[in-house]
Amino acid sequence: MALTTSETEDAARDLLRMRGAERPRLEQIRTYLTGDPTLTWLPQGVPQEVRALAAISRVNIVKLVADSTVQSMYVDGYTSAAADKRIWEIWQRNRMDRKQIGVHRAASVYGAGYVTVLPGKPVPVMRPHSPRYLTAAYGDDDDWPVYGLLHRGGPKWRLFDDQHVHELETSSDDGNRLVHKGKFEHEQDVCPIVRYLATEDLDDPVVGEIEPLFQLQDQINITTFLLLVAQHYGAHKQRYILGWMAKSEEQKLKVAASTLLTIPRKPGDVEVGEFAATDLSGYIESREATLRHLAVISQTPANELLGQLVQLSAEALDAVNASNQRKITERQTVIGEAHEQALGQAGSLLGIPVDPFAEIAWKDTERRKLPTVVAALAVLAEKLGVPERELWQMVPGVSQSQTRRWEAAAGHDATPGAGRETAHGDPGGTDTDTDTAAPDTPPTPAGAPGRGPRVLENAA
């Protein structure tokens, strides 16, 4: 049953309360991601010089952890038994090759990201959203929300339900009240919001990679601050003279700059000495130890955080990266299901039945020696009888569109895996992205390389 105007405004008010409760946590994560956490540990009334040292002591490591994960996740294709190219056309025309990075980053950083699926021309419109701007309320079915509230900027909001998209605006009298302005049908029987989670947890709410690392990031910042203070005030030797005072600032500077010092006093009346320089190695070792702890907890290769390059064998490198690869595999499994859900829902708007056996293909981002891999694949073909064409897609750095061109050049039909379309083109190698459009970006200016007019219209 369609919501009335008052019911729509009531639902929006409830979601605003949910958003208000969640917002402080999300904004705190954002401050750590941008490298600007509050210096709560700095005492009040410290000199401005010390406060400046504290400001530059923020070493943003947690962003590197998030980047390491996101940069290992790129959707490279879509496999479906239906072999319907229109599904992959939806991905291409929405420029999801690029926009997938944003939704992957939101899921990794905050624990969740969202994609809305709405009717459009010539294909449905898919738009990624951060949880800082979209709040969704779920019931018994955790695949589709009951309602979703999206802040579109300024006073404009959207409320999604299982029948309509409602346009709302902030009331001029009460900034916490949203006023219904209109609605349109989204032509689907579910609330058209797909949630992308960082992982799956049956007990506790899912959190991203940043929040569990707050304390370790604070430790790194504090240790760096103490290192800078020690370096600034004590890393150089300081000399002293007991029993004599300079009569003026000019005389003090002259004594400080002189290589030969003469003082009109008896030798026993004056004592000259110096303080030893502060040893900084303890601070540096402490920071490196914290970085190693952070690497273990976040399942990030320690060499990426420490910047230490050592000569390691292939087996040793595999051991170093094993934990990180397990994390990436889990993340791809969870997020891949969300991509399949979003593409299946978008395809249903074109009358394409949802394929429960469809799969997302991920790009292989591991750096491996080509001769070694090819030799291993040759053994599979020779010893186990695996068809050679099925091994082509396992060659490092070779995209699925390239394997299609190999098949065409070899004179084979592409029946095995015929349902697989790639982010780089159709089976003949044509780049289907060269004449497509993003739903939320203006047409590419004339003369832009490799791009033609790109227009996607939303039903709104």
How would you sum up this structure, described in words?
There is one protein chain. This protein is of the alpha+beta class. The chain has a domain at 5-41 and 85-197. Helices cover 41% and strands 16% of the residues. The protein has helices spanning 5-33, 48-55, 62-70, 85-93, 96-110, 214-234, 249-257, 281-298, 302-306, 314-348, 370-383, 388-392, 400-410, and strands at 75-79, 112-118, 120-121, 125-129, 134-137, 147-153, 156-160, 164-170, 178-185, 193-197, 238-242, 271-275, 359-362, 420-422, 457-458. The strands form 5 sheets. The protein has a 5-stranded antiparallel β-sheet with strand order 5-6-7-8-9, covered by helices on one side. Strands 13-1-14 form a 3-stranded antiparallel β-sheet, with helices on one face. A hairpin with a 3-residue loop joins strand 7 and strand 8 (164-170). Helix 3 crosses helix 5 (96-110). It is flat and about 105 Å long. It starts with a helix and ends with a strand. The model is unreliable at 414-455 (pLDDT under 50). Residues 429-439 have a biased composition (Low complexity). This is Phage portal protein. It holds the Pfam family SPP1_portal. It comes from Streptomyces calidiresistens. Residues 397-460 are annotated as: Disordered.
For the structure shown, list the relevant keywords.
460 residues; alpha+beta; flat; five-stranded antiparallel β-sheet; three-stranded antiparallel β-sheet; 15 strands
